[in-house]
Each structure stands twice: as structure tokens, then as C-alpha cells.
Amino acid sequence: MSIQNLSSICPDKLFEECSVAEVQTTQLKLKVEVERKREELRTLVGERYRDLIEAADTISAMKNNSEKIITHIERMSTKCFELQEKHLVGFKLDTASSCMERNKNRKPYIMMGAQLKLLMDIPEKIWAAMDEEDYLLAAQLYLLARHINTSLQYSSGEEYIESKKVLQWFPVLTRQWNTISLFRNSILTGCREKLKIVDLNIETASSCLATDLLLEGCSLAVVEQMFLNLRMESLHQILEYDHQTSIKEQICLSLKLLAQTLHFRHACFIDENKDSDSPGNLVTKKLLAIVGGDAPRSIDLLNLQNDSIYNYIPEIIKQFQ
């Protein structure tokens, strides 16, 4: 009879169906099974008790270690506070001094990085200005880029890095300036093509003439002669024989061009207020609005006042007009 059958045996049925010998045998088997179950119970209780004792010992050890750690931390806090109270002034002075020294050593590199970033960003803004045919703004940005390039290569002093090192560390500087330098001819060409147009307004004409004067660095008389030559060239183009344009249209366009040219020449170049502090011609007014004493700085064209880079731009760049 299996163990499973022993656990489910019915005593009445056992006495009815089995002999005395079989009943005695079954009794012995039940006693053996009971003893085995008791032993298993003792083992199970013993193991659980041992685990419980070990867990209790571990918890007690953790409690002791935690108390020791808390005690050490409290002692460290007390010592740090005493040390801070004892040497507080000295620590502050040393920290400020070392911080100032570190910033002083890093400043030339940060200033150089700020100027390089400006030189990288300006071409995009020049392109945008030229797309909008704002050649005067494009010229201002070009001159600012030229000034930054000069500052990087030729400035000297404690706040600047030697030009040789700048060119050695950043060969891209030369390539970037070579790219930017091409804008000068593009701006001048755009201005002069604009000045040839018959339907030209006075504001555009004065801006283009001021741009030419700004980039060429010549006298007002030279720019005036250049303007007249461009208008004469435009007149010759109108008078050239063209099957699609009638003689009447050519004459009308020619008269319009001549009248407009005389008006522009008078407004842009002739100063009727010679005795006054305020110039009378538009070109000079345009230039004074850019390079005059009360004119905004060229760096303001980049709208960097709220940018962290603005604080590291050298004053020689910030004050440029």
C-alpha cells in the first residue's frame, strides 16, 4: 500500500476487508510514516529558525553600523563647521583670487573664439542683406568682418593671442576671410547695376551711392562722376536701335532718365546748407547715420546684446562704426 493510500485509509473498512496480520502490517507502516513526517517537521522548523536567527543578527549588525556612520557624519559636520568658522575669510579670498586668475588666463582664448564665431556668422547675414538688395547693410557687415579679421591678426597685448598662433591654430581664418573678401565686388556690382535703372527711387539711389563711397573710400566728387558715367551708360543702352522699342518710347525713356539723373545729382551731391552744421545732401546724411558720432555701433547690426558671446567681444570690435 502506497503512502498516499495510507493517508486516506478508512479504519472501519480496513478491519472489514483485511486480516489481523495485514492490519498489523498497516499499523507499522503508519507508525513509520508518522515518524518520518515528524522528522521533516523538525528539520523544517529548525531551518526556518536558523534563518530567523541569522536575519536577526544581520539586522542588529546593520543597526550598529548605521549608528556608527551617523556618528561619523555628525563628527565630520562639526569639524567642517569649526574649520569654516576658523578660516572663512581666508577661504573666500583664496577662492576669489584663484577664480579671477583662472578667468584672466582664459579670457584671451574666449575673446578669440567669440571673434571667430562672428566671422563665421557674418557671411550668412551679408547674403541675406544682398538678397533684399540692402547693399548699405551688406557693406556695413563686410567692413565689420574686415575689422574683426584685422583684430585677430594684428592686435597685441595681454588680452590678445599672438597673431602667429591664431593663424597656426585656426587656418580656417584665412579661408574664411578669402571668402568674405569676395563680397566687396559683389556689393559694388549690385549697387552700380541698381544705379543704372530708369525707375529708381531717391532712397535707393542715395543708399547705393553711400555704399559705393563707404567701400571705395574715395571722395564725394569721384562717386558723383561714377554715378554720371553709369547714367550715361544707361542712356546709351536706351538709345541703341531696338526693333521692339519705338523711337517715341526711346525718347520718353531718355528724357525720364535725364530728368531723374539731374534730380538725383542735386539731392544726393549738392549741399545747399553749407553754413549749417547739418549736411544738405542725402549721401552725406546716409554716411553720418552710419559713421557719425551718434551713429549706432556696427556690432548692433548682429543683435547680440542678449547673447552670452557679447560679453567676450573686445571693445575694439564693439566700438567699431
What report would you give on this structure?
- Keywords: Golgi apparatus, Membrane, Protein transport, Transport.
- It is found in: Golgi apparatus membrane.
- Belongs to the COG1 family.
- It is a peripheral membrane protein.
- The protein is an all-alpha fold.
- The chain has a domain at 109-318.
- The protein is built from twelve helices and no strands.
- α4 (135-154) packs parallel to α8, α7 (183-195) packs antiparallel against α8 and α8 crosses α11 (282-291).
- The chain starts with a helix and ends with a helix.
- 17% of the residues are buried.
Protein structure class: mainly alpha
The coarse overall form would be: elongated
Tell me the span between the first and last alpha carbons.
Answer: 113 Å
Tell me what portion of residues adopts beta-strand conformation: under 5%
Mean pLDDT: 79
Could you list the spans in which at least 5 consecutive residues all have pLDDT below 50? 89-94
Beta strands, count: 0
Number of DSSP helical runs: 12
Biggest sheet descriptor = none
SSE order, one letter for each helix or strand: HHHHHHHHHHHH
Helix percentage range: over 70%
| Rounded radius of gyration (Å) | 48 Å
GO biological process, one term: intra-Golgi vesicle-mediated transport
Family: Belongs to the COG1 family.
Membrane topology: Peripheral membrane protein
Pfam family, one: VPS51_Exo84_N
